[in-house]
Amino acid sequence: MLEKFLPYSTQSIDDSDILSVTQALKSSHLTQGAQVKKFEDSIASFVGVGKAIAFNSATSALYAAFRGVKDMVYNADFVRNLIKDSKDCLDSKILRLMDAPNFASARKKKKISIITTPISFVATTNMMLENDITPIFVDIEMNGNINTAKIESALQDDTLAICSVDYAGNSVDVVALRKLCEKHNLLFISDSSHAFGATFQGEKVGSFADVSIFSFHAVKPIATCEGGALVTNSNFFATLAGLVCSHGVVKKSLFNYDCITLGFNFRMNEISAALGLSQMKRLQSFITQREKIAQFYNEYFKGNPFFFTPDSIKTQDSIKVSRNETSHSVMLSKSETSNLNKSQNLDSKNPNNIESNRQDSKEFIESKKPDSKEFIESNFQKTQSTRHLYPLLLDPKYVCSKEQIANDLNAQNVGVQVHYKPIYNFSAYQKFNYPLLRNAEDFYHAELSIPCHQNMDLNLAKQTADIILKTFEKLKY
Fold it and tell me: Which residues does the annotated region (Disordered) include (predicted)?
């Protein structure tokens, strides 16, 4: 049992953060001051985009993004007026899309749909519904991200965008998604709430999509307590986001202002922005430490008979399912299981492998010290996850015991969580009569997120891993 409760993820606050927050508290402005603008500029520069708008949450930022899609259909003159002098390529694309057949169809039918994944926090699609947009759910791959190969067959004549989610901080295949969007006249919106600081082929996540959303919730890569941002290269989406964020008001001078569209108070405050600016200085060190913990788990858990680690199954592998009224089980095909065991050169049914892996991992800890430059460089590739989550997928025979396993681990101060229940299973979505999606269902029943964050060192990771393995060993199968 761990001495203190270890959450699956948490913030890291140091003296520099406290000093930044204290200075913000002592300033003349607690809201609508200089810190928010500095934070926005810092985000835009870091990601490599032209514009960033800070919000009080990623949920609010998502609302603004989908509001933009809605306005392109029902408020076209307003959109054209906002970008009439823009020379941005993305704004030219927006003007072109508004005349595309799918946008015309949506306008005529008064119905908009957007392709997305069911494995996400419900805010992703709640904000679609809030904008009278119907989500179309497409099944996932084994890494939790949307299966790009299944998108094309799900498109409808009123589908106007793809909204991907970078599950656990792992980038989706942005190249494939951009090609689909170009081919079918779609906007590319990325809910990258898990992925601030992640990269794809050497470029920052957030620089690929037409609009991207980040979260700065306390468990995310950096924390502003609560907070989020919308980033884009579009004058339209940036201007609209600013309007939605602050009451829809345009202010030219003290007594000359106008409300030109409906907006809200979604603003980030100065204190949160100051904390965000301070946290950004340590973002890469946070991600580096998360990666160290994840790589340790990968090695330590290799060949265990209880669960699969995120890196042990290729994204193209599919999940086979068998189900009855009282139980759920996730089944890999024989060939997939065989290939997985072969690739690890281990017999997963041999309990001696657990002890062998522990010994290997003892050597791993000793040889890979926390400050090892070789360790960092050898494990960082051009496509880099933030490791926001470290999700385990339970072996089929343990799926029925997942709740017991979770309760046992929490009782031993190992905080675990489930990410996520398929969105279409929530009560608020039953009226849409969505079909069940096989991989999404099986992923949910098998998934368990374990602690993996920057406040852990390798010794704590080993203690955590030992507790996890012993908890599974106690189950008799």
Answer: 330-361
